[in-house]
Hints:
single chain, alpha/beta, four-stranded mixed beta sheet, 37% helix, binds N,N-dimethyl-L-histidine, MeTrfase_EgtD-like, methyltransferase activity
Amino acid sequence: AERLQIEYLINSTAPTNTSDGNDVIQGLTKKPKSLPARYFYDDRGSQLFEQICELPEYYLTRTETAILQKCATEIARITGTCELIELGSGSSTKTRILLDAYNRLGYPLHYLPIDVSAGILESSAQQLLTDYPLLQVHALVSTYELALEKLMPSELPSRMICFIGSTLGNLTPQECDLFLSQITSALLPGEYFLLGVDLQKPKVLLEAAYNDRQGVTAAFNLNMLQHLNERFEGNFDLQQFAHWAFYNESQHQIEMHLRSLRSQTVFLSALDTTVEFAPQETILTEISRKLNLDALQQTLTQQGLTTVEVWTDPQQWFALLLCQL
Ligand code: AVI
């Protein structure tokens, strides 16, 4: 049997249909302006994000990796044989720790990575096939919503949806509730949800993580405009915008913006949209919420997800939760 199958539910580089880009028009025509964070992740953006994960200031990836290394075997023992479904799989680097654990226990390896960036999905799937001779990969180039609607029951006894890397923090509380309800509709009773989240910590550490000294986060933020230029035939001048990130302590969230350095007009041809910017006007490109573990567990319980186990690091910077429907 073919060990690799790649399905394209969206076109990751150009508008797929007439409604693609409506979210961009909406975000840029309201006040204050905002853009959906998923537009960070074209192929270049996914590469920049991989670089962010290796930055000395960006403690998230290192911390979560250490937790996974500690508990992966336990996770595999609890869930038993299951299909691993990963939302926002990117390079799948951390997922290898889980694959290794299932592999050591002699379980069959079925992996279903889902990402909006086709380039990174294709190359990481190829590499995984080389490194894991028994692995079967069924990759989906898709948004989370579309993919969750399309998920099919596995031939294996169970499934685990993995949503690691604290991407849940990039959703507003409202979006988070909707997302979790999509997760529970996709799962069958007894199946698993593995969630990695960044926790609250001092402002200095957080602001350093989103304002790295090498400027990779700034490049990642600005790349969103380049992506919109390519995808929607726009003429954003990247020189005329600046990265701005800070911790909003009352909301417990990093807010990442692009600030217009002068008065300017931008045209997005494919969307037939003109956008005016005042000097210093900002576009909110991302929130990154830092969660409280008790509050999160309450939200999960309200959604019908039982927490089976929680793992954290010695400093309690990051948490990994294994939940079950
Ligand atoms: C993907 N997500 C969890 C990252 C975060 O930290 O919120 C995205 C990111 N934004 C700036 N740096 C990294």
